[in-house]
Amino acid sequence: MDEKLREKARNAIKSILEAAGFSVNTLEDPFDLAERDDEYLMVLCSNDPGEIGEYESGAFRLMKDGEEITYKKLLFSLNPSAGAGNCIVWGRDEFIRYAGEAALDAILDRPLALSFSDGPGRQAASKATLAGGDAGSAIQEEDAGGVPISHLPVRIQKQAAEQIAKAQGQASLRFMPYWVYSYQSSGEQVYKDNRIAFDSEGSGGINAINGLKMEADWNAMTEGAVPRNAEVVQPRLTKEDATEKILAEVIESLTRKIRIRQVIGDAISYEEKVMKPERKNIQIRLQQAFIPVWQVRGKKIVEVNAYTGEVLSEPMDEGVEVF
After folding, report:
1. Cβ distance 312 to 320 under 8 Å?
2. pLDDT digits over 110-155, tens only?
3. Exposed (0-12), middle (13-18) or buried (19+): which is 115, by Cβ within 10 Å?
4. Hey, how many other C-beta atoms are within 10 angstroms of the C-beta on 191?
5. Is 321:308 a contact under the CB 8 Å cutoff?
6. Which pLDDT score, from 0 to 100, does residue 317 have?
7. Burial 210-249 (b: 16+ CB within 10 A, else e)
8. 171 and 161 in contact (C-beta within 8 Å)?
9. Which of 48, 84, 128, 270 has its CA 20 to 30 A from that of 290?
10. How far is residue 202 from each of residues 199, 246, 254, 285, 287, measured CA to CA in Å?
C-alpha cells in the first residue's frame, strides 16, 4: 500500500469511525488513534506483511493525562492473505459493509451502530448464550453475522418467546437501543453558615427511543455481531440529548433547599436558599447498548425481553418500557 493509497484508506476508515461516534486523530505515522468515551482503537492501514507483523506483535504503550490506557488494535488491509491474531481485521467486505451503513445512517441522520469485541479476528464477534425452549428453535451461532453491537445476550429462544407471549404469530428479533450511563458529581456550595456537598455517583440506562429509565443487568453486556435476520433499531434520542437529560436529572436529585432563620432584635425572619451543583462539576459517561426483544405480531403486538423472558407492557418503541 503506497502512501497515497494509505492516506485515502486512513481518511475512509476515519469517516466510518466518526460516523460511529469516535474522534480520530493521528497518533504517529502511520498510526491513528480513535476514541469514544473510554474506548480506544489504535488503527493501521497496510498491505505490507512485515509491517502488519510488527503491528500485531508490537507492545505499544499509550498514555493519556499521565495514565496508561487500554486499547484495541484495528487493522485495515486489502491484502486478502492478511491476518493478525491480536487485531480486529477489516478487509474489503468489512469496508464495503460499514461504509455503506455509515452512508445510509448519514442520510437518515442517525449514528452508525458499531462496536468492537474483546476478541481479535476478522469477525470480531462474540456469540450469545441461549436458554429456554427446544434446541431446534435456537438461534444458531452461524446465524450471527449482522452488525456488531454492545448488547445483552439472547437467552430466550424464539419458540420459548412465542409460548411466553401467548399470542398467535411468529416472533422476530429486534435489538432496542439504550444509553447506558455513569455519572460522578463533586463540589460544594457555602452560604453563610451552611455548607452543602454534592459528592455523588451513580449509573443506569435510559431508552434511546422514549427517554425512559430502565433497570437492567448492564454488567452482563457483551459485544459482538447479532443474527443477520435481526433488526437493530436506531436511537431517536441523540447522545447529546441523552447527556442533557441525565445531567438535568442529576442536578435535580442533588438540589437542596435550605431555610435560614435570622433574629434581628425582636424580629424573626426566614430565608430560603436553593443550592444546586454546577454543571462543570458533574462528569457523565455514555455508551450505546441494545436490549434484545422478541416481537410477536398477530392481532396484537406482544414483546418479550429476550434476556429476562419478561413480557413488555407495550412495544418498547411506542413510549413505554419493561415492567
Report:
1. yes
2. 778 777 754 444 433 333 333 333 333 333 433 555 678 899 988 8
3. buried
4. 13
5. no
6. 53
7. ebeebebebeebbbbbbbeebebbebebebeebbebbbee
8. yes
9. 84
10. 11, 11, 12, 11, 14
| DSSP structure class, residue 160 | H
Q: Is the dihedral of CA 231, 236, 238, 243 positive or negative?
A: negative
Portion of the chain with pLDDT greater than 70, in percent? 86
Query: Tell me, what's the pLDDT at 225?
Result: 82
Q: H-type helices in the chain, by residue range?
A: 3-19, 49-57, 92-107, 158-165, 239-254
Q: How many helices (H) and strands (E) does the chain have?
A: 5, 19
- What percentage of the chain exceeds 90 in pLDDT? 33
Kindly provide the b/e burial profile for residues 145-178, where b requires at least 16 CB atoms within 10 angstroms of the residue's own CB. Answer: ebbbbbbbbbbbbbbbbbbbbebeeebebbbbbb
**Taking residues 272-282, what's their average pLDDT?**
89
Report the amino acid identity of residue 62. Answer: L
Residues 161, 294: contact at Cβ < 8 Å? yes
Query: Which amino acid is residue 240, in one-letter code?
Result: E
All cell numbers assigned to 185: 458529581
Q: Look-up: residue for cell 499521565?
A: 66
Write phi, then psi, for 170 (nearest 5 degrees): -90, 145
Instruction: Report, in this order, helix, strand and coil percent for the chain, each rounded to 5.
Output: 25, 40, 40
Q: Taking the CB of residue 207, how many other CB atoms lie within 10 A of it?
A: 24
Q: What single letter denotes the amino acid at residue 41?
A: L
Instruction: Report the distance separating Cα 62 and Cα 141, nearest Å.
Output: 35
Closest CA to 211 of 189, 179, 255: 179
Query: In the predicted model, is pLDDT for residue 243 greater than 50?
Result: yes
The closest of 286, 279, 293, 228 to 111, measured between CA atoms, is 286
What backbone phi and psi angles, to 5 degrees, belong to 7?
-65, -40
